[in-house]
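Notes to self, Aminotransferase class I/classII large domain-containing protein:
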Amino acid sequence: MLDARAWRQAWAAAARAPVGGDYGDPAGEPELRAALSAFVARQRGLAVGAENVVVTAGALHALNVIVRALLPPGSAALFEEPGYRAARQVLLDAGHTVIPVPVDDGGLSIGPDSPPARLAYVTPSHQFPLGGRMSLPRRLALLEWARRHDALIVEDDYDGEFRYDAPPLPTLASLDAGGGRVLYLGTLSKVLAPAVRTGFLTAPPALVPALVRARTLLDFGHPLPVQRAVTWLLAGGHVDRHVRRARRWHSQVRTALTEELAPLAPRATLGGIEAGLHVCLHLHGDLDAREVAARLAAREVHAVTLDTYAMRPVTSQALVLGFGGLTVDEARRGARVIRGVLAP
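result:
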């Protein structure tokens, strides 16, 4: 959480701004769009103009806007399997067909035989929930698939600010320079707090008018006081400083978690540890993930089984372990409970 003093100053700055008599820009206030474009350039190396940024209420809200604006009725969409349940449900609730595509440590598996679709939704920086990073060859293959089928790609970079012991890979959006096919989603929920309800999308110039129109019809834009407070935090460098502090904090928690769980190998092994705020504990042998999760819950350690993120039956037994809200000591205590439950 950002320090309380910065929060108070941000809201005070927002309160001092005059209250106009009209709605704001449905794409977001120009100052915030400029601050977000500079932020994503610093944090993710993505060079994009403020005019190509649309402020949203988070990644799911952004996906709803995209679906409303750009997908014809009854479109097909490629989706990671297993993948982010809520994003999948956005597509299904809108009447589109979701085509599950397997993922592994290298991300979404795309090849010449991959089916056509109007859109592909991916989490390449830290696949949710397995945690792998999409390799550069896979990224290029996905872009080629989109070109071949005249499709769009939604790149959900929901926790891309948090990387550990691994060099950053270029975003799909930056690799698509000039291609006009990638919509990049970012959120401040992991950086600041989910309650701020602020995120953004970046889009190729040709797609921005349709997205702004959809945002206008959906809710006419983001609350101005929130935009002004977030702009103050971004422009003053407070968010960048907080990201650096949070990255060190989460790195320590992640190290504690991995150290405590390492002795479980080969009975259980960790994946997805290079980035993000969760890891995936893969269970081997005769271990059953649901049974293990129930035993952990009885000891007040909560984990989600991998099968809950899949559309089809999965044979892999694994637990998704989130650590974003934990201290080092809490991570160690929880990991020791897991070791006790999994000890042969």
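- The chain has two domains: 4-236, 240-342.
- The domain at 240-342 is CATH 3.90.1150.10 (Aspartate Aminotransferase, domain 1).
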